[in-house]
Amino acid sequence: MPRYPRRKSGPYKVAPPLLGPAPDIMIAPEATSYLRTAPSTVYEWAARADDPTRAANGLPNPIPVIRVGRLLRFRRVDLDAWLESRSSSAKGIKVTKAGAR
Length: 101
Fold this sequence. Notes:
alpha+beta, 3-stranded antiparallel beta sheet, 4 helices, 11% strand
């Protein structure tokens, strides 16, 4: 039986940091750079998007994700709107500097 060479495992491929404007549709590593979070966090948030009981239980909106088969895509305008909906100013909370009166 012939032996095939083992596949060498390399480092995890991560998209380079976004140097210019973000593309309209991003893949998960680009969304990770855009949101400045860990890749595992983006994948976890995307997995929560499939849970139909979130809205019924009053949980916050999951990250907006487009699934193309098993691939994840993120629209920049959706991420911007999602971030704005999660900001403290959108919830009516007044943010002040520590020690300010």
